[in-house]
Amino acid sequence: MLTDKAVRAAGARIKAYKLTDSRGLHLHIAASGHKSWRYKYRFEKKERLLTLGAYPEVSLADAREKRDKAKKILREGRDPRHAARRGRLVRTSDSVKSFEEVAREWHALQIERWKPVHASDVITSLERDIFPHLGSMPLAEIDKPLLLSILRKIEGRGAIETARRIKQRVAAIYRYANAEGAKLENPAADINDALKPLPPAKRYPALLSVNAIRTLMGDIDRAGASPVVRLAARLLALTAQRPGMVRFMEWDDITGIDWANADANSSDALWKVPAEKIKQELHLRSDEAFEHPVPLSSQAVESLRAVRWLTGRSPFVLPGARSGLKPISENAIGYLYNREGYKGRHVPHGWRSSFSTVMNEQAERELGADVRLLADRMIIDLMLAHTPKGMSASELRYNRAAYMPRRRELAQCWADMIMEGTIAADEIIDSPRRKRR
User: Fold this and answer.
1) Which tens digits make up the pLDDT trace of 108-142?
2) Do 56 and 36 form a contact (C-beta atoms < 8 A)?
3) Which CATH topology does 210-436 take?
């Protein structure tokens, strides 16, 4: 049998030669002096040769261990060469990867389908909160109590939502490792009950009475702001959609309006929010985005016709003042509300609460215990791009464009209520400028 000393001392000769160890293992020394471990065996009555690695990267003890593993594969009736080839194809190795190595592999695999901001947030959170504690450890050594101890440190600084997000990311990393054949227990599975509950969802300041809303609408009509910003505020109120969706509204997203004929019937006017914009606004990471149809009231159509005099050459319905190729600032409407005295009372996102509260209360007054009340509540949720209570995500995918006649009725009812006493959209537009066009 070979010794470490003999292996180290073996030098190059004119021709390649070998030093035999035991049980089919030998050290091959090339004429160049390169040394490699090889294992000779028989499979299906034929002599085979399996290279186990180069010396000194693979020591004598390592080579014997690899030989023994190969012999075990032989006893199972398999060819060790095939097992080694499979290992190379699926990128397995004898070295155990650390959590950080696997996590970075997983992250690199996701980058193409993630937005850059989200990809950066994911790796930054792992580098900040997980890698310093668990990064160097093999995945098999990380169990639930250990992971929980790290997540509770995060919770301890008040970052409860961050702890939940990191838990989800760790779970995804283990799913990735297991898909690669690791066969590990996922320490992030079934630990939600051991984490602090999420805080209540943030409530945006919102006006919830029709009279207060009408006063706000009148104040905005007469505000000292650009016509585009004032009409943006009006369209946001009329549609009750998320501010980002209104900001990024494009003329191509709108159907059912004959722009050349102001007297044409626009009862089928529709704003189709593309799936990609929904995905962007809701920060969705999966491919489960969906197109969201928004029926447009007659007042919304009037507002669109008016603003088109100013912005019709831009792809955006509501472009910024500096460039027609960018939407208005995300703070433009909020600053307008603040200047008019509504700071802390109503914010752009508050229109969703306003719409939901007012319309649900009206439905309850009109329908009482009628079964149609339940339908209206579901339809109001659909209009806000929410998943109605009791409706699964798959049902939502099929029903998001359903009930359109009733959705149009509710959109028009809302518009009629909040627009009472407001000025015409044409009056908001600068008259001399319109004539020049």
Assistant:
1) 998 888 878 788 899 999 999 999 999 999 999 99
2) no
3) hpI Integrase; Chain A (1.10.443)
Cα distance between residue 107 and residue 123, in whole Å? 7
Cα angle 59, 63, 67 (rounded to 5 degrees) comes to 170
Residue 369: CB atoms within 10 A of its CB come to 7
Determine contact, residues 300/415, Cβ cutoff 8 Å: yes
Domain locations along the chain: 4-89, 99-194, 210-436
33 contacts 17 by C-beta, under 8 angstroms: no
Supply 38's token pair: 């090889």
Order the strands of the 35-43 sheet from edge to edge. 17-20, 25-29, 35-43, 46-55
Of 275, 289, 264, 227, nearest in space to 428 by CA: 227
Clarify whether 26 is annotated catalytic. no
302 membership: H or E segment, kind and range = helix 298-311
279 is catalytic: yes
CATH code that applies to domain 99-194: 1.10.150.130
Q: Are 269 and 256 a contacting pair, CB within 8 Å?
A: yes
Residues 6+ apart with CB under 8 A from 389: 378, 381
Concerning whether 15 is annotated as a catalytic residue, the answer is no
Give yes or no: 349 in active site.
yes
Catalytic residue among 107, 292, 352, 407: 352
Q: Is 331 left (phi over 0), alpha (psi -120 to 50) or beta?
A: alpha
Residue 194: which residues within 8 A CB-CB, separation 6 or more?
A: 144, 148
pTM of the model as a whole: 0.59
List 242, 247, 292, 346, catalytic entry:
242
Catalytic residue among 82, 113, 152, 398: 398
Structure tokens belonging to residue 68: 């023994």
Which CATH number is 4-89 given?
3.30.160.390
pLDDT tens sequence across 54-68: 999 999 999 999 999
* pLDDT surpasses 90 at 204: no
Is 46 among the residues known to form the active site?
Answer: no
What one-character DSSP code corresponds to residue 140?
A: G
